[in-house]
Design a protein that fits this description.
By secondary structure, the protein is mainly alpha-helical. It has 6 helices and no strands. Helix content is 69%, strand content 0%. Helix 4 packs across helix 6. It starts with a helix and ends with a helix.
Length: 119
């Protein structure tokens, strides 16, 4: 819904594109999820909330350290950087706070707009 608001209202696209806009988070989830498995992204992996959730769930389930290059380290001897749970969790909380802040900002803006229209 947030993406629809940005695409339609602020960028001026046709409302018929709103169904295609709804698939953007799904596509990004697949891209970042598979990129985290198959590519060595290094510290860029902390910037993706999709990859953070994947690594945090994997580490929580298995109970041991997860290497950044998860698929390769699962099929070969583990080498490379270890995923930091504290950093991953902190970045995920920042993502959640920022998205909620954007959402509430636009929600309050929408409520004020409706209130001034009714008056």
């Amino acid at each position: 819904m947030f993406l629809e608001l940005i695409i339609i209202k602020y960028l001026g696209f046709n409302p018929a594109t709103s169904q295609a806009v709804n698939f953007i988070p799904l596509i990004l989830g697949y891209l970042f999820g598979f990129a985290a498995l198959y590519l060595n992204l290094g510290n860029i992996i902390y910037g993706s909330p999709f990859a953070d959730i994947e690594y945090l769930l994997t580490e929580g389930y298995y109970g041991h350290k997860i290497y950044m290059n998860a698929l390769i380290s699962a099929t070969a001897s583990p080498t490379g950087e270890v995923f930091s749970v504290v950093t991953g969790f902190a970045v995920l909380m920042v993502w959640i706070i920022v998205l909620f802040a954007f959402r509430y900002y636009y929600l309050i803006e929408y409520i004020i707009e409706i209130y001034t229209r009714v008056r």
